[in-house]
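Quick illustration, no need to memorize.
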Amino acid sequence: MKFRVFLGLFASLLKILAVLMLVPGAVAAYYSETGGVIAFALTSLLTLVTAIVLMRLSTKEEPGVKEAFALVSLGWLGAAFFGAMPYVFLGTSLIDGLFESMSAFTTTGSSILTESNAQGYWIINSTLAAGSLSHHIELGLRSLAANSSMLQISSSPDKSYMGLLFWRSFAQWLGGMGIILLFVAILPRLGVAGRQLYRAEVPGPDKDTLTPRIKQTARVLWVVYILLTAAEIVLLYLAKMPLFDSLCNTFASMATGGFSPQASSIMAYGSWKIDAIITLFCFLAGANFALHYKTLSSDRKALFRDPEFRFYSLILLAATAAIVLWGGLEGDIFRKIQLAGFHVVSIMTTTGFATTDFDQWTAAAKSILLLLMIIGACAGSTGGAIKVVRILLVLKSGYRELRHVLHPKAVIPLRLGSISVKDEMLRPSNIFVAMYIIIFAQASLLLAIISYHDPRMTIETVLSAVAATLGNVGPGLGMVGPTLSFAEIHPAGKMLLFLCMWIGRLEIVTALVMLVPEFWKK
């Protein structure tokens, strides 16, 4: 790999991130959160200075395949690191800040926050906030402004964190369609690297582009994403959700991320209309965005003709019916359908929103949700986990092998709808599923060993914590259930789950390719 060429790409990505940091900073200023303004100003400045230094160390050469893979892999780590700084400056530990930031960018939604204010919004612990760098700078500014009537700065930490809460959801929205895809869409020509960046960033086995030019494809996907985002914001606001909450919850649902500004998630609003709107848009976000574009631009039946989308819909319907029947849900049949449907869509699309504590449901219902965490949404969506199309290909591949047992000499094609699936596509898909299961098992074992001293870390908690982070889902079961958080997991366990989120978002291969010695050779 040409390291100095990579530095130039990485520096350009950091410049974009430094500018984007000003948006939550402006939100903090609007809500008069001095600490938040300081945290985001410092982070933006730190990110920009780092970008300038790296740019000076770089060389202007045509990036290749290795540099593209390095940018995707290390770009997400870099975004998570600099994205964690506002949390750290406002009082969290570095490990907690990294966990929360990676959870945001990878659209996981697992959180370490534990406290809320009187309005129900997440806040940072007041003791931690009082010792934060941002607050110490506030106090310094206050002493300087003691004789000035122009500056009015509080001597206590911020009582709200609207800027930080906006950043959590905004980072999820950026990570949903992909920060690297945004990079491809707005930067000048990247040559061969642009196509490789696209292929490494877009989830799922099918990497076909919508247009001949990668930049145009990236822009098309972002346009569809923005249009759906705008539509959901309007509908939630019309359904009486406050504008700030509408923005944050839309960012989180379109990214299938699940970071709500409210500590009690969507149950805070107590509205079936809001539940229905979020269910619809999570369902759409869990489908292939290339199909959304085709549906909007040319082929109105593109979604319904797609075998993956039909299988995705079938799984959602079957899981909802099973939980209604055997989930032990309370209420009449309509309430049961509402609860089951919302959480099945939320979990399978890897969003992670909740309107009730599903950890109190029956073992049958929780087993279904755990399986949905592993299956995930469609390829080309903002969802995570294995992806429906890979599950479909494994099932079809298994059925073909059974037929081969009966007809050893027969040539049996494997078809996905009207498309004949070649072995070149089937092999990496099956290998991915096998690697996913192996990593899931290894991470579960490691987390259990790390947490051996904590009796609350039951097998249910361990398996669901790994499934929720590797699949970028969010909440798990037991100690990491929808009404709890990941705050009390051992720091080493948090860093393990941090890596699970990163590997899961990069769909394993893009992350692990850097372990191959040849990758680092020029």
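The chain has a mean pLDDT of 88.
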